[in-house]
Write a structure and sequence with these properties.
The structure is a single chain. The protein is of the alpha/beta class. It has one domain: TIM Barrel. It contains twelve helices and eight strands. Strand 4, helix 4 and strand 5 form a beta-alpha-beta unit. The longest helix is centred in the C-terminal third of the chain and has 18 residues. The termini are far apart. The relative contact order is 0.14.
Length: about 300
Amino acid sequence: MTRPLVYSAVTTAFGQDGSLDLASTRRLFAHALAGGVDALFVNGTTAEFPALTLTERQALLAAAVEVAGADRVVAHVGAASPYQTAILTADARALGIRKLSVLTPFYMPSAIDGVREQVSAAVHAAPDAEIFLYLFPDRTGVQLTPAEGAAIIEEFDLAGAKISIAGTDYLAQLVAALSSPRTVLSGNDGLLREVVAAGGAGVVSGVSSAIPAPFAELADAIGEGDQDRQQSIAARVSEIVPVLGPSIAALKIAQREQGLIETAVCRMAIDIPDERWVAKITHVLATASPETSSRVA
C-alpha cells in the first residue's frame, strides 16, 4: 500500500512581547522534520496566520526553505482578499516553493464565485504551482458542498484539497465527486487510517508540530500494511490528539516544555489551558517522550 502523507502544520513562535521569534520557529521546523514528517505546512491556521503581516509570512517561508528545502514546504497563501493572496503566492514562488494552499475567503460572506476569485488569484500568480484548495468552514463561514469543492478543483486543475472538516464523510464525498485522482488531505490528524480508507492521501497535522514521531510512524505502518503496528501506534495517537489538538496554546506549552520555543505566547487571543489541562499535557509529554522533563508550571 502507498504510504500516506503527513504534513506538519507548524505553529509560529513569539517572544514574550508578541514579536516574531524566527530562531525558535526554525527549531520547530527542524523538530517536525526530525520526527519524520514529509513536509512543513507553513503560515496556516495553526501558525496564527491572520495575526501575521505579509512581511512576517514571507520571512517564515524563507526560514522554512532554509531548514527544509523548497520541495518540502507547503505555503499557505490564503488571505482575506484575492489581492493579498496574489502577493503571498508570488512571495512563495520567489522562494522556489511550488506547493501552495489557498484558504477560501473569510470574514465577508462568500459563495462559490468568491472562492473562484480567491483561487484564480493564486493560479494566475503561479500557473506552474501545485495548488490545494483549503476548506475550513468553521473558521471562514464559507460552505461548499463536496460537489462544489470538486468542481473548483477541476475547473482550475488544482493538485487537490486540504479539508478541515470533522470526520471523513465530506472528504469521501469530495473524492468520489472528482473525475480524476487528486491529492486530498485532511486536518483530522487523529484519523489517519480512516482518512486513507475514505480515499484521502494523508493528513496535515498540527499536533505533529509538537510530537511528530507517532504520526510518521503510523504512516509508515500503514504503508507497510502492518496491522498490529498500526493498532499500537494509533492508540498512542488517540491519547495525544485530544489533549494537544484542540488548542494552539496547548501545542505551544508542549513545545516550550521540550525546549523548542522560549515562550508559549500566542499572538491571537487564545484561551490558556487550565491546571487540569496542563496536567494532561505533562502526562502526554512524559508518555510520548520519556526523556522530556516535567517543567510545566
